[in-house]
Amino acid sequence: MTGAWAILKKDFGSHCRSWVGVLSTTAFLLIAGIFFTVFLFAYSQVSLEAARQSYEGIEGLNLTVFVLGTFLSNLAIILLFLAPLFSMRSLAEERRIGTLELLYTYPLSDLEIVLGKYLALLAKFGLIILPTLSYLVVLWILGATLDLGVFFAGLLGLVLLAATFLGIGLFFSSFTDNQMLAAGLTFASLAGFWVGEWFTSFLPSPWDSRIAVLSPFVHFRDFSLGIIDVKDFAYFLCTIGFFFYLTLRSVETRSWKG
Amino acid sequence: MREKKVCSGGAGMISVQNVSKNYGPLRVLHNLSFEVRKGEVLGFLGPNGAGKTTVMRILTGFFPPTEGKVVVAGVEVSRAAREFKKHIGYLPERLFLYPDLRVEEFLDFVAQIKGVPRKERKRDIEEKMSLCGAESVAKRKIGHLSKGFLQRVGLAQALLGDPAILVLDEPTSGLDPRQIIEIRELIRLLGRDRTLILSTHILPEVSAVCERVLILNQGRIVAQGRPDDLEKRLRDRREVLVRVRNQGEEQKKESVGQVLLSIPGVESLQKLAQEDSVSSFLLTTTLDDDLRSDISKRLVEAGFPLLEISTKRLSLEDIFLKLVVSEEPVEAA
After folding, report:
1. In this complex, do A10 and B90 lie within 8 Å of one another by their Cβ atoms?
2. Containing structural domain, residue A95
3. Other C-beta atoms within 10 Å of B126: how many?
């Protein structure tokens, strides 16, 4: 597995030096920061209002769910745009510049190539998500009482969601040498899940839930509310495994061009 | 230098047995069989599109053959693809490396993939860079290298991990004449203690570097031998087919054979067939000039009716016409 590790290091290093990597990471952190601040102010306003007017059910107002839960759900939407940007280069670029031919002739198994590529994508995601943990410190300094269990369940959900998005992105990157096409197809399919989920509400029961269950966003929602369900977990693992397998098969098919 | 692994089963380092390759419905290699001995420098010569790169790609494990088998160092390729790739260093024809990496970063990446132990990696990389003359660009980005240096880095990556076999696909294509000379010099040096397979469409390149040549055309091996022999055959020989009525040969001063051999330029003669009173001869002429008019004149003078005369094109000659046979001399700078 030293081969997979070498690929991970190379890809991650290239990402950190590329303009896509620098810009996307900066943009993500900027947007995430704005969201977090907005939700925090909204919460303080709502809770102030609620305390003043002594609404019923004020006890149900929960900082973790209100701020962090909403925050994570919004990150999921940002990921929808970011995942295609991260994954588009992965294999398509190697195919385009012709370095895939070299990789194929090194003592590497196809599994190592795909695994290295996939882990590099997860590392790119780690690079943008780790700094957001500092927001917890901000909340702690402000003296908030946090339900860490709920937060980390939501974070786990976000990681699984990202892993699924990137798995789909890697697959679309594996059979073309055109980055834009890879990004476009990835975005289209992710957006399809997202938009498709709204439309399922127009379907008659039980079809609405049967179709909605295909969408990763539905499974993420439970996590963001602090619920870890084996069903959701299994859904993510199966989807990741499925696309990983498809990518592997796609890499096994050598291109005759070049 | 690490010791080369000696393969089982004699001196054959690579054995290609009845290999064919299809690209979809198109067959590009037809039943190829050849052996490469340990330490040999073998050249693949052929015009563009002859199937050289396909052979190289099969030998390097890029893709498997459609039919037949390839045995490298006693290991059948399809059985242990990873294991066998460790024996092979490959320089593809169109070399594309990661433009955003520095040369030493790239070589470190390759050394790691090839399983060079961490402690030896630095030494191995430095050794290969200096061998290939790439140490001056170690810190440069690959995207900023000239084609000549890129080729040196390409050779260095192929050499990392000391593979017993080097496969170089058109190693001098796209280089300027001075770079070509330098790279050839390097290849000759590398071939001293390695098994080396080289493909090219340039005849003098083969003569300069290889001990043995396989000529490939339209996916078939059409000739093989020592480069100087092949070159000689290609350069100087022309075959002329002559059909003569030799009726009453016994009463003439000389036989048809004697007449033909007395023509200046005819080197040898082979009698092909004798049907009734018609004899067919195949002449080998050493000169480049067309001897047909001399031949017909002499035969008529000697009283033998000439029925047919034609220069027989060697099948190799067709290929040869498509090859690059000579190069402009390079002025020393």
Report:
1. no
2. 2-257
3. 14
